[in-house]
Amino acid sequence: MKKLFSIFLLLLLIVFNGCISKDESIVVSQDGNYMFYENSNSDIQKNSYEEISVLDSADDKNVNTEHLHLLNFHWLHNSYGKLFSIVKKDGKYGIINEKNEFLVNPDYESISTIYNGFFIIKKDNKYGYLNEKFEIIQEPLYLDAKEFSNNVAFVKFSNEKWGCISNKMKVLIEGKFDEIFPFINSYARVINDDKWGFINQKCEIVVEPKYDFVNNFYSDFTKVILDKKVGYIGKDGKEIINPTFTSGQNFNE
Q1: 97, exposed or middle or buried, with CB in 10 Å at 0-12, 13-18, 19+?
Q2: Residues facing residue 218 across a β-bridge
Q3: What is the rounded distance in angstroms from the CA atom of residue 50 to the CA atom of residue 67?
Q4: Alpha helices of the chain — where are they, by DSSP H?
Q5: Given this model, what pLDDT does residue 27 score?
Q6: Considering only CA atoms, which of 64, 60, 31 is closest in space to residue 48?
Q7: Could you tell me the pTM of the whole model?
Q8: Would you give the DSSP letter of residue 116?
């Protein structure tokens, strides 16, 4: 039994020793500025920043290790691929890698964290997108921009109305709505001129804004209100009960 326990301890030591990174970087602060410090270099790196985020991953690919063997267990925790940090330098935002090299020059008024493979960037009060390779795939053009979900994003056009673009940056709906709400069960509520309707996850208009209020689709049907009367519609946009009731519950999820 003691022999088995000793073998188990030995294996644990091998595993944890194999998982120690030789290229760890930490962030240090001095006089209100932030810098990278590498354990492989006793000198603090030259570039300093007004702000710096923790290192994050741009994709979900496993990191290739330099010493592949059966007792190397990096695959247990290597969920990171390209590491990056969003930094602020001279009042502008950019992106650096773990070696303190700029992947995106500090030219932007803001850069969001990555979400579903895209960063939102802001320049000259206009918004655009970077992809996970840190490439500009949409120059800042829109008055506002939201994160991608279901391969589409809601953006505000020059007419100050919201529309949709695809993850290929193709315009699906030009500026048409005063507001678009997040997708719930593949449908998003929209408002235009105080009237409510729906679009689907392909950014197709399912219900033109015509109701005074609509609930989200938590089932195949949802409640709508028109002229203070309650009715119900299906996901195809057709009324299954005309708005004639003074009150009514919504269908549960």
Answers
A1: middle
A2: none
A3: 37
A4: 2-18
A5: 64
A6: 31
A7: 0.75
A8: T
